[in-house]
Amino acid sequence: MTDQAQKPTGRIVPWFLAYLAVTAGMAVLINTFDIQDRLLATGLLVAPLVLLVPMFRNSLARAARRGGSGAAQRKYLIRMAVLSLFYLVSLFAAESIIADGDRLTPVTLILALVPGLAVAGYFWAMGRYLIDLEDEFLKMLMVRQSLIGTAITLSAASVWGFLENFGLVVHVDAYWWPIGFFFGIGVGALANYFQYGTTGDCA
Amino acid sequence: MKNRLKVLRAERDWSQQELAERLDVSRQSVNAIETGRYDPSLPLAFRIADVFGLAIEEIFLREG
Fold first, then answer.
1. Which residues of chain B make contact with A135, given a CB cutoff of 8 A?
2. Beta carbons within 10 angstroms of residue A49's beta carbon
3. What is the 8-class DSSP label of residue A175?
4. Measured distance CA(A92)–CA(A87) in Å, rounded
5. CB A137 to CB B32 under 8 A?
6. How many CB pairs below 8 Å do chains A and B form together?
7. Could you report the predicted ipTM of this complex, rounded to two decimals?
8. Do A69 and B18 touch (CB under 8 A)?
9. Which of A2, A3, A197 minimises the CB distance to B32?
10. pTM
11. What is the pLDDT along chain A (203 residues), one digit of tens a residue?
């Protein structure tokens, strides 16, 4: 058995980068053409998630080729996939049922809360993964990634918040910051690659 | 911290993957330790020593 024989067959990072690029492209498209239809805008932002399907499949294949850490990674990927599905369904339900100006009712409140809670579930899944992961090196890589992602996002949110407060930039809805965090996770994976020669499991 | 992991592995004709399986860690971990990019914890250093049947100080060496 050679070291080369153990290289995973599927690519993960390019699919993730493609997802980020297409999502950003969709956001530009929505702003450029001033698309007001909320359902259409949501659909355009959600459509790039299709690019995460091959990433998910490649990640599962990579996990299957690994030993102890593979089981933790597999559980993490399945949790993320289930949460993503939950997020999509809840977001479409909220966008379809709640109209701007609707009065607050228990139903609208729950519908508006659930997509955010699904995103919060991503962070729970990451925490569970850190607990399940027994490989200390991979665990360290993921902690580094998360810290880099957190630092980038909180710094950007702080700077943007003050700029917005003084009327120098446009308003950014708060749900974009978790997306910034996942972009930061990608930057963290690159930092891991340059310093440790591997991106770790989560990229 | 320097180490003799690569030499010891080569003496036994083990691939990085084989050593990783014996240690129950990822191949990336073995590679990072071998290349000196990552220093293992004491429990993992003991596991490495056990796998090679050597004392820790026969595998891991002080810098300089």
1. 25-26, 29
2. 15
3. T
4. 9
5. yes
6. 59
7. 0.93
8. no
9. A197
10. 0.76
11. 344 444 445 687 788 889 889 999 998 999 898 888 877 888 888 888 888 888 888 888 877 776 656 788 889 889 998 998 899 889 888 888 887 777 888 888 898 999 999 999 999 999 999 999 999 999 999 999 999 999 999 999 999 999 999 999 999 999 999 999 999 999 999 999 999 988 876 44
